[in-house]
Amino acid sequence: MQLFLTRHRRFPLTRVVFAAAFALLTIARISPASAEAMLVVEAGTGKVLYAENATYPWYPASVTKLMTAYVTLKAIKDGRLTLDSLLSVSPVAASQAPSKMGFKAGTTVTIENALQMMMVKSANDMAAVLAEGVGGSIDGFSAEMNKNALRLGMTQTNYVNPNGLPADGQVTSARDLAILARAIIRDLPEYDHFFQTPAIKFGRRVMRNYNSMLGRYPGADGMKTGFICASGFNLVATATRGNKRLIAVVLGAQSGPIRAVKAAQILERGFGGGGLSWLKPSLGTVEALVPIDAAPPNLRDDMCGPKRKRPGPESDDDNAGTASDSNGDNLVSLFAAAGPVGVKPSQLLQPPGPVQPVIVYTGPKKSGAALVAAVAAEELKQTPKSRGKKSRAAKKKPAAVAAVTPDAKPKQAAAKPSADKPKGAAKPAAGTTATGKPKTTAGPKSKPAANAAKGSKDKSSEAKPAAAPRS
Asked: Alpha-carbon distance 142 to 137, whole Å?
C-alpha cells in the first residue's frame, strides 16, 4: 500500500479511493480480540430491532442442540416416535466429550428425559443418543439437521454433529439462529417447556440450567447456551412481556455471566423501543439480512490462550466460566456495572423454579415389554436419596404407618399408630406433594410418585442440593 501511495502522490483522488476500498476490506474481517455478534428480532414478525455482525459466520457450539431438539420434536409431532420411546446409550454416545451425563453403554432413557438432560445439562452424550435414535446414526441425523436448516432458510448453517463439539464444518450465524428460534416457537409451541426447564434432578445431583437469564431477567422463557474455545460464549434467549416476545442472540461473549448481561441489554432495548425509534432506518426482517461470505472467527487464543486461564476442556463444557454465577451474585454485579437494563437486583435472585426428575434404567439388558416394565418399575422406586436402603423409621414402624412427610421429625415418625390412622403424619409442606416431591408448574408432567407406604426419611426436596460436579 505504501508503494502504491508513493507512486500516486500526484493523484490525491486515486489515493482516497484506494484507501477507502482498503478500509472496507478491513472492516469485512472481524478481529478475534473484538469478535462479537448480537441480534434482536420479534418472534412473531421476524422484524429486526438490533443487529451487530448478525450475518457473520460463527461456530455454534452447544446452541447446535436447538436444531437437535427441533428435529427430534418434529419427529414426535409427525408420529414417528413418542416422548416415552426408549433409547439406549451406544458406545459412540458414551464416548462423547464433556459436558455429558456419563452413562455407561447400555443405559436406557426415554426421549423425554434425554431431551431434558440435553437442554439443561447440555449433555453431549444425550444429543448423540437422540441422533442415533431418530436418524439411525450421527451422520444420518446430521443430514436431517441440514435438510431442515435448508428448508427454514438458514443459508449460513452447516451441521456435522448433533451437539456442537469442535468441527471446522460446523458453522452458523446469529441470523440463522434467530430463524431457527422463530421456527421452534412457531412449529412446536406444545413443547416449549423443554427450552425453559430451570433444573433437573438425577439421583442426588441437581443440575441447573446454564441459561442464567431464566428466573432472573423478567419475562425470560428460553432457550440455549453454548461454549467452545473457538466460538466464545454463545446464547440464544427468548423473553416475553405482554403480547410481545423477542429473540436475542449473543455470540462470542467473554464469559457466561457477560453473555447474559449483553442479552438482557439488547432485549431491554427491544422492549423499550425508545421515543426516537421511528427516526432510525428500518432493518427489515431477519430472513432479509444479507449473509457475509467469510470464515468464522477463531477465538481459541483469546478464550483459552496462555494469557487467560482456560475456562474449560476443549469441548462444549457450558460449565466454563459460570461456576461463580451459581447464586447470581456475579450476575448482579455485572448488571449493576453495565448500567440500567430494567432489572432490579432482587429480580436477579428469584428462585430458579421447579426441578424436573430424570429417570434412567441401568439394569440387565432387556427388550420389548420387559424393558418397558423395567423402566416403569424404576420410576416407582423410592426417591433417589433413600433408594437402595431402608430408612430407620421404616425399620422401627410397621408398613401401615411408615408414610410420613420428608420434613416430619424422626420422633413424629416413630409415634405409636392410632386405631384409625398413624399419628405424626404431618401434612405436606407447601409446594410439595404427599410424597415430598416438588409440585411442577412448568414442563412435562412429573413421573409417578414414589410409593408412600415404603416410608422414606428423606429431607425436604426444598433443601439446598449439592452442586453438580464439573465434567
From this structure: 8
Rounded to two decimals, the pTM is: 0.70
The three three-digit cell numbers of residue 49, written as one number: 430491532
Could you count the other beta carbons within 10 Å of the beta carbon of residue 1? 9
Strands of the sheet with 205-208, listed across from one edge = 355-357, 199-202, 205-208, 466-467
Residue 62: active-site member: yes
Distances (CA, A) of 53 to 29, 38, 279: 10, 7, 22
Measure the CA–CA gap between 147 and 149, rounded to whole angstroms.
5
437, 446 Cβ separation under 8 angstroms: yes
Which residue intervals of the chain bear CATH 3.40.710.10?
A: 32-355
Range with the lowest mean pLDDT among 49-53, 256-260, 440-444? 440-444
Alpha-carbon span 81 to 70, nearest angstrom:
13
60-88 residue pLDDT tens: 999 999 999 999 999 999 999 999 999 99
Q: How far is CA 294 from CA 165, 181, 302, in A?
A: 21, 23, 20
Angle at 108 between CA 105 and CA 109, to 5 degrees: 125
Active-site residue among 122, 173, 212, 315? 122
Q: What is the CA radius of gyration of the chain?
A: 26
195: exposed, middle or buried (C-beta count within 10 Å: 0-12, 13-18, 19+)?
Answer: buried
Cell of 243: 403480547
- 122: annotated active-site residue: yes
Indicate if 366 belongs to the active site: no
| Chain-centroid distance, C-alpha 420 | 49
pLDDT at 366 over 70: yes
What's the DSSP call for residue 79? T
Find the catalytic residue in 65, 74, 201, 447.
65
Tell whether the torsion through CA atoms of 299, 470, 257 and 164 is positive or negative: positive
Of 397, 427, 393, the closest CA to residue 410 belongs to 393
* Active-site hit among 62, 315, 386, 456: 62
State the CATH class of domain 32-355: alpha beta
